[in-house]
Design a protein that fits this description.
Shape of chain A: flat
Radius of gyration of chain A: 24 Å
Largest sheet of chain A: none
Helix content of chain A: over 70%
CATH architecture of one domain in chain A: Orthogonal Bundle
Oligomer: heterodimer
Number of domains of chain B: 3
CATH superfamily of the largest domain in chain B: Dipeptide-binding Protein, Domain 1
Strand content of chain B: 15-25%
Largest sheet of chain B: 7 strands, mixed
Structural class of chain A: mainly alpha
CATH class of the largest domain in chain B: Alpha Beta
CATH topology of the largest domain in chain B: Dipeptide-binding Protein, domain 1
Number of strands of chain B: 24
Number of helices of chain B: 17
Order of helices and strands of chain A: HHHHHHHHHHHHH
Distance between the termini of chain B: 69 Å
Structural class of chain B: alpha+beta
Largest interface: A-B, 65 and 66 residues
Radius of gyration of chain B: 28 Å
CATH topology of one domain in chain A: MetI-like fold
CATH superfamily of one domain in chain A: MetI-like
Distance between the termini of chain A: 13 Å
Strand content of chain A: under 5%
């Protein structure tokens, strides 16, 4: 067990270092970008602009700003007030948006895993049949088609054609399903291909051949002896998949009018909302880092051959 | 790993997965609202002194009220169907204007209360407007009250020796080291009043010649924070009035009291020394129901300004209790308009509920309203078609051809204009003949018919039609022959030798499409080559601000229904000018018009004369006047196109479905 704890400890240290690096790079990039958080078509007099800068602690030198803001984050977990959504602090924006994005991501991932693994297993077991070919063609298409195209088709089909889902909005289970499917579909396609490859590799293993030769029923062989080994590539893909469903939601949030954090990410950067953009970047960093670490950890637990280092 | 750990881990993973799905599937949906509309991007703030955009104003107009309100007046325009609006009583039940047009006396209703029951008095207006003008409030519309005496000086922080001033002591509730007082500017600290007798200034630092203007302004502002103000302080009476001649002693104040070289031990720290706007003659409140407002010069459109949300009331008791911006949270905000805020979900919706305490609550018909935050026209149209929205203000342009044939689509002209700024300092556009040639060679009909498609009106002048009492000059005529002649006269016959120009626009599908048509047209008609440059908003504004472009696209929406809202943009070195254009006569005409408020006809003539100069000089190429593009369900009554696309929600009625 001690190796697990030391692994987690080491990862935490790495995460702090990564966050610091991300903070520094984002800080520099944002200050380098032309325009400022207060540029607008209707210009403000210099005296007022100075007051605005003072209000948001942007009046000091860049070095002062760098350490002031970093200090606030480290000591109080305070990401400051959003410069553009000025009734909200960055912490509030994330607190309101993250659950929405997370909820969407959970549904998308579950959908992707269930559909992807099922399709992968079926096409591996019935390798070379029409079912296999058509599912793999569907998977290639699924990977290639961008999700906003998929979303448009899905809206035409399910909203206007079949009338089973609402067009957009947030607040009910029905409203989350369609965007989750659109978000999860490309991931499902990828998982299907990984699962199929893993299955085929496992099927040709000697212990599997032994099991079949022993006369075990086919389903028992597949679920007991083939599937666990075949799932390893899928598990290792879950880290990037999480990243994908979280970042890939930007476009879908627009199309389906979802109040997630994805659209804040874009808007904050475009409007030079320094604090909100920083909050978003750091949040994504933490999420991705944690997800990848969990995947690494679970990989070591599931696969006896992998050692934690 | 031992196998039992592995098994336990798999179990755990399964449990976590199930728990996550259960968590993700938990929703607490709000009951559906009676009326739902598309509100564009999420409102940045609900503070009337801080808001600027359309999504903000759609909410604020309906949850706050001021002295007056814009309501329909007279029959709709026969041709366009636009319903004229005028400023009509709201919290003020009536008002009188003195003969010289400089003193307004408002008679307030005695039944007006906030949504928490606190009565509204004339003092509330004094406090609200003082807050609006206070430099730290950073209200972008503060210039709208600049005609009140001392308002501009108070807002910009200018004080002179001899002025009657206020000094706010450094004792706000959050004035502790590291405190957050900068975001909580109201409630204010203790205020001392008196007459400024002297300003002690330390030596002004020398600024190197290489210093940029911005940096110099900053350095100057930092130097001014070391100034020590010597004030003959007087006492404040019980009723809040100040007897300026009753001096109780001389005291000194300084922003950097601890570090300034000219401060001494007696010097008190202050947030700033400002003209005592609220204690001087601008506003007078003889009793809770009477408000007297004095202006420096007559302003014919002053009632319109009072019907515009920055001058609306804000709740003093609520702001003082929670501070800004926390008072705008949905469980803390107090309103005085027809609706109040029930729920505020970021990027999702704002739920409005009828304010039972509104003085005119009987006239408010719809009980709950949702303002949905969605920017995408496609999404909004999908929601409209499937019955999730009743009003869409921005359907996708690609579908306008089809929408125009429908009964629920109501396009109508608006007081706003789409135009291209020209950098008049850069050759060859520094030559007025070239500017006019370009302006004349553009076929605006093609742009409005093939691209924007909603019936926009080609613009050959600056001020949109529909300004009451104003007759715009004729404008120029599109004329390719004349354009070629002008270009030849300027030294570029047939476009020969004409340098390549760059047209700058901010990233948007529509702007690009229009720019491309323009590019093609100018190449065909004048043989002028134009390069398109596309930038995202922040960088685009930066370039325009620094006048570092050849041609740049822009748009402007009227703040109030008066031609000055468009003409004032182009005064020499005006904040929005950004073209480098300057015309003495133009400036003079606008100044003459500003003091001719008591002679409306003459004033309008002066303004028209100024517009004629603008047309002759063409520092900007007008393209078209916008139209509003509202889609509204047929069961909604009381919705009509208005010049500024404002739609008071309390006038709407829902017809019962007869099916």
């Amino acid at each position: 067990m001690s190796d697990v704890l030391s692994f987690i400890g080491k990862r935490l240290l790495w995460m702090v270092a990564t966050l610091w690096l991300v903070y520094t790079i984002s800080f520099v990039l944002m200050r380098l970008a032309p325009g400022g958080p207060f540029s607008s078509e209707r210009k403000v007099p210099p005296a007022i602009e100075r007051q605005m800068e003072a209000r948001y602690n942007l009046d000091g030198s860049y070095v002062e700003q760098y350490f002031d803001y970093l200090g606030g984050i480290v000591t109080r977990g305070d990401l400051g007030w959003s410069l553009r959504l000025e009734d909200y602090s960055v912490n509030e924006v994330i607190a309101q948006g993250l659950p929405v994005s997370a909820s969407l991501a959970v549904f998308a991932l579950i959908f992707a895993i269930v559909l992807g693994v099922t399709a992968g297993v079926i096409s591996a077991v019935y390798r070379g049949t029409i079912a296999d070919t058509s599912m793999m063609i569907a998977a290639v298409v699924g990977i290639a088609v961008p999700n906003f195209v998929l979303a448009s088709v899905a809206i035409l089909l399910f909203v206007f054609g079949l009338n089973i889902f609402p067009a957009a909005g947030w607040g009910t289970l029905k409203q989350v399903l369609l965007p989750a499917i659109c978000l999860g579909a490309p991931v499902a396609a990828y998982i299907a291909r990984l699962a199929r490859t893993g299955m085929l590799e496992s099927l040709s293993r000697e212990h599997v051949r032994t099991a079949i030769a022993k006369g075990l029923p086919k389903s028992a062989v597949i679920f007991k002896h083939v599937l666990p080994g075949a799932m390893l590539p899928v598990v290792s893909y879950l880290g990037p998949a999480t990243a994908r469903v979280l970042t890939g939601s930007l476009v879908l949030e627009q199309i389906f009018a979802l109040p997630g954090i994805g659209s804040h990410f874009i808007n904050a950067a475009l409007q030079r909302d320094y604090t909100l953009a920083m909050g978003m970047v750091l949040t994504y960093t933490v999420i991705l880092f944690v997800m990848n670490s969990i995947v690494d950890l679970s990989y070591a637990i599931i696969d006896p051959r992998v050692k934690l280092q | 790993m031992p196998p039992e750990v592995r098994r336990a881990f798999l179990m755990l993973a399964g449990i976590v997965a199930v728990a996550m799905v259960v968590w993700a599937a938990r929703f607490q949906p709000l009951p559906p609202a009676d009326f739902t509309f598309q509100n564009g991007t999420d409102p940045k703030t609900l503070d009337p002194h801080r808001a600027t955009g359309q999504p903000e104003s759609r909410i604020i107009f309906n949850v706050f009220a001021g002295l007056l309100q814009a309501l329909p007046d007279g029959p709709p325009d026969a041709e366009t169907g636009v319903q004229p609006m005028s400023a009509q009583p709201s919290i003020a039940k009536s008002f009188t204007v003195s003969e010289d047009g400089k003193t307004y006396t408002f008679d307030l209703r005695d039944d007006a209360v906030w949504s928490d029951g606190v009565p509204i008095t004339s003092e509330d207006f004094r406090w609200s407007w003082t807050r609006m003008l206070h430099p730290e409030t950073l209200c972008q519309y503060s210039f709208q009250l600049y005609q009140l005496p001392h308002a501009e000086a108070y807002n910009t922080g200018v004080v002179k020796v001899g002025d009657r001033v206020e000094a706010e002591l450094w004792d706000r509730p959050d004035d502790v080291p590291g405190g957050d007082s900068s975001t909580q500017n109201f409630p204010r600290g203790t205020i001392r009043y008196g007459t400024l007798v002297e300003i002690r200034k330390p030596d002004e630092p020398t600024y190197p010649d290489t210093m940029s203007n911005d940096a110099r302004e900053k350095a100057e502002a930092a130097w001014k924070e070391d100034w020590v103000y010597v004030i003959d302080v007087c006492d404040v009476a019980e009723d809040g009035s100040v007897d300026w001649d009753d001096v109780s002693g001389q005291e000194t104040f300084c922003i950097n009291a601890a570090t300034s070289p000219v401060a001494d031990e007696e010097t008190q720290a202050t947030h700033g020394v400002l003209v005592a706007f609220d204690k001087l003659e601008a506003i007078e409140t003889p009793d809770p129901q009477t408000l007297i407002v004095r202006l420096k010069t007559p302003v014919p459109y002053f009632p319109d300004l009072l019907a515009y949300y920055p001058t609306f009331l804000v709740p003093k008791h609520c702001i003082e209790e929670f501070g800004a911006p926390l008072w705008t949270k949905d469980d803390q905000i107090v309103c005085n308009g027809p609706y109040k805020i029930e729920k505020r979900l970021l990027r999702d919706r704002i739920r409005l509920r009828k304010n039972e305490k509104y003085f005119d609550a009987d006239q408010v018909s719809i009980e709950t309203i949702d303002a949905i935050s969605t920017e995408s026209g496609n999404t909004a149209l999908n929601m409209y078609e499937t019955g999730q929205l009743e009003w869409v203000y921005d359907p996708p342009s690609l579908l306008l051809d089809e929408l125009r044939t429908r009964d629920d689509f109501h396009p109508a002209p608006m007081l706003s204009v789409y135009f291209y700024r020209i950098n008049v300092k850069r050759p060859p556009m520094d030559d007025v003949r070239v500017r006019r040639a370009v302006a004349m060679a553009i076929d605006r009909d093609q742009v409005v018919n093939q691209i924007t498609k909603a019936g926009q009106i080609p613009a050959y002048r600056l001020v949109p039609p529909g300004m009451a009492g104003y007759q715009s000059p004729e404008g120029f005529k599109p004329d390719i022959e004349e354009a070629r002649r002008l270009l030849a006269e300027a030294g570029y016959p047939g476009g020969r030798g004409f340098p390549k120009l760059t047209l700058l626009y901010n990233t948007q599908q529509m702007h690009r499409a229009i720019a491309e048509v323009l590019q093609q047209q100018l190449l065909n008609s004048l043989n002028i080559k134009i390069e398109l440059q596309n930038m995202e908003w922040g960088s685009y504004l930066d370039k325009v601000d620094q006048i570092n472009y050849d041609i740049a696209r822009a748009g402007w929406i009227a703040d109030f229904a008066d031609p000055t809202t468009f003409l004032d943009l182009w005064v020499t070195d005006g904040a929005q000018n950004s073209t480098g254009w300057s015309n003495k006569r133009f400036d003079e005409l606008l100044q003459e018009a500003a003091v001719a408020g008591d002679q409306p006809e003459k004033r309008m003539q002066l303004l028209a004369e100024a517009e004629q100069i603008w047309i002759d000089e063409m520092p900007v190429i007008p393209m078209y006047f916008y139209v509003s593009k509202n889609l509204i369900k047929s069961n909604v009554e009381g919705f009509f196109p208005t010049p500024q696309d404002r739609h008071p929600l309390h006038l709407l009625r829902l017809k019962e479905d007869k099916e």
